[in-house]
Amino acid sequence: MAVNGNDVGIYVEGSLIGCLTNATFSSSNEEIDVTCKDNDGARAILPGGQTAEITFEGYFDPAATYGFQDLVAINKNRTKVWVKMSYDGTDSLTITGYAYLNQIEWTGPLNAGSTFSGTFTIDGGWNYSIT
Asked: Which domain holds residue 93?
């Protein structure tokens, strides 16, 4: 059964970020090139460093229990926080780690809802669990 994206949320220190419209986790592994001439130039690599990010988008709601105002404070104060992205259902997947909110944006377009977005960059390792 497919997962409904409405059931995927991002939590900061245990609090759900309110009024999100998108949540994305991405991770990438660096490659260390160890290609030698004596293997006819066939590419050989070793795994290098790993990076991970959790990005989000949402509508600005000043009444949200945990919202844009809280995120601005994290960004301004350069606070490292515990973040979790999870699906709350059967066979749920949860991704966690400590991160900095290194990018945040607030938009106020004409005749449209005010939005915000941002990127948590995970500092160190991240974990996942499937329950």
From this structure: 5-130
